[in-house]
UniProtKB/TrEMBL annotation:
Organism name: Nonomuraea jabiensis
UniProt name for this protein: Peptide/nickel transport system substrate-binding protein
Chief place where the protein resides: membrane
One Pfam family per UniProt: TAT_signal
UniProt membrane topology term: Lipid-anchor
């Protein structure tokens, strides 16, 4: 694999922005079990949880290289990190490791592996597997997970078969929750030729409470309790069947009515919330960072001028967008972070609706008779927001055309560096974690695809930002570090290269008569590790 991602690779791991291209696959025996269809299981089987996921299951299942909502949710049930985190509080707990680190400011952490931990094929988990996984993450292939580790983690060393040592470049107190991203993978499986391509296509082999039994792209993925699991969060049901239904109406229908096949569904449309509540379902939202962002091509005039980028943000009537498109389930961005993030602070530049200021900035930049083609992913709620953007820009004299399209088609153009002006898409780095350093490294990283797409990578301003981020990462005093984070968040807001317009609320629905222990997530997907069938 080269150090540069191909378009296919990017689409497989960028599932946060929507459904990617179909990936035909034949799974090896590691996935096990006979093929099964999306119609498996009626609602009366108490040994089975049937779930509906509003995102595709046909993107990468390689834990080191995916942002797919469906795959990441499944991976959390199949694999373990040395430490994992609670899906809501994000507090770390020992998973494959036996204990949390005692000194968060140390420059190395040692972990002992859990006695009796086994892979789903029955072989023991060893320190070699841990080293193998981190060599992949820290290696030259630039897998996605590397963005969250390379700035602070020097290496991972084997002490003996049951013990490993993580060596840091400098003290990094936020490392504990970060370790959940590094799902440990068996060396004897994934060191084989072609195994990483099979992982992208759906092959799994973990040490977690559930093993994958079948994977049918664009249909469903099934799971079964792993009898050999002896960790902290054992399986609560014998089997799970997760259906992938991207179409909103079909997804709602699957969980509706007395004969509903599914007991839980995520990505519930706002228009269906009251209907499902009237049927006795619990419908709750999770407020997090899920957002629509605008990304500008700074290699194309006039978008190389910060005043133009700022003007286009000031021009958008965000409250109208929230009222009309999001039915009130949204918040106008006032920072790159959402307001519920622990590190949130209102940015020095906030793009409150101000069409007069937008006109003044365009005039100051000498821009007249601007015409914009806004390309966008065709995720349903994004598509609902686009008319407000067009109307807002037209109101300040900018002729605007909208071009929503399949995510695969859009990013094929981006990867070929075809000319474009502005892109609107959805994203949620909270799938990986909550801390600001992690969130910024999802989009703003030297050599990263988003920086290349925006043609900002390598500019003096980009280098300034990356230096600010590095300085904050190395600061161990929490108050000083937070101050440094706020400074670079202000810079990101001012530059408006890739920046949120609104943050929205994600809705999950479930039948409380059939499921307990459910908590709505503020990021796509579901977590059923503590759910019980009733």
């Amino acid at each position: 694999m080269s150090s540069e991602f191909s378009r296919r690779d990017f689409l497989r791991y960028s599932g946060a922005t929507g459904a990617a291209a179909f990936i035909a696959t034949t799974l090896s025996a590691c996935s096990g079990g006979p093929a099964s269809t999306g119609s498996v299981g009626a609602g009366s089987n108490k040994d089975l949880i049937t779930a509906v996921i509003g995102y595709g299951n046909d993107q990468s299942w390689d834990p080191t290289q995916t942002a797919s909502a469906f795959a990441m949710a499944g991976i959390n049930h199949i694999y373990e990190g040395l430490l994992d985190t609670d899906p809501i509080t994000r507090e770390p707990y020992p998973a494959l490791a036996t204990a949390l680190p005692t000194d968060l400011n140390a420059t190395s952490w040692k972990f002992t592996l859990r006695d009796g931990a086994k892979w789903h094929d029955g072989r023991p988990v060893t320190a070699d597997d841990v080293v193998f996984t981190f060599e992949r993450i820290l290696g030259p292939d630039n897998v996605l997970a590397g963005n969250f580790f390379k700035s602070w983690l020097q290496e991972v060393k084997k002490v003996d078969d049951k013990n490993v040592e993580l060596v840091f470049k400098f003290p990094f107190p936020d490392a504990a929750p970060r370790l959940t991203i590094a799902k440990i993978m068996p060396k004897h499986v994934f060191s084989q030729a072609g195994a990483w391509d099979k992982a992208k296509s759906g092959m799994t082999m973990g040490s977690g409470p559930y093993k994958q039994t079948a994977h049918n792209p664009k249909s469903n993925t099934t799971f079964e309790a792993f009898d050999g699991y002896n960790g902290p969060r054992p399986a609560t049901v014998k089997k799970m069947n997760w259906l992938t239904i991207v179409d909103a109406a079909a997804r709602v229908a699957k969980i509706s009515g007395g004969s509903a096949e599914a007991q839980i569904a995520d990505n519930i449309p706002y228009a269906n919330v009251d209907q499902l509540k009237q049927q006795g379902l619990t419908v709750e939202g999770g407020k997090g960072m899920n957002h629509m962002f605008l990304m500008f091509n700074t290699g194309a005039k006039p978008f190389d001028d910060v005043r133009v980028r700022q003007a286009l943000h000031y021009a958008i009537d965000k409250q109208k967008m929230i009222d009309v498109a999001l039915k009130g389930h949204g918040t106008a961005s006032s920072s790159f972070l959402n307001e519920d993030n622990p590190t949130y602070k209102r940015a020095s530049v906030v793009y409150d609706y101000d069409p007069d200021k937008a006109k003044a900035l365009l005039a100051e930049a000498g821009v007249k008779n601007l015409t914009i083609n806004l390309m966008a992913v065709n995720v349903s709620w994004i598509a609902d927001c686009l008319p407000t953007i067009a109307a807002s820009w037209e109101a300040i004299g900018i002729k605007t055309t909208l071009e929503p399209q399949d995510t695969a088609a859009l990013f094929a153009k981006m990867d070929q560096f075809q000319d474009y002006q502005v892109v609107a898409a959805a994203s949620n780095p909270n799938q990986f974690g909550m801390d600001a350093d992690l969130i910024l490294h999802y989009n703003y990283v030297p050599g990263g695809l988003w920086m290349k797409y925006s043609h900002w990578d390598g500019t003096a301003d980009a280098k300034k930002l990356f230096a600010m981020m590095d300085e904050a990462s190395k600061e161990t005093d929490k108050a000083k570090r937070t101050d440094l984070i706020h400074k670079y968040l202000d810079f990101v807001a001012e530059q408006a290269i890739l920046y949120p317009v609104v943050h929205n609320e994600l809705m999950t629905a479930w039948d409380p008569k059939k499921l307990s222990g459910i908590r709505a997530q503020p990021y796509p997907g579901i977590n059923l590790l503590q759910a019980k069938r009733t």
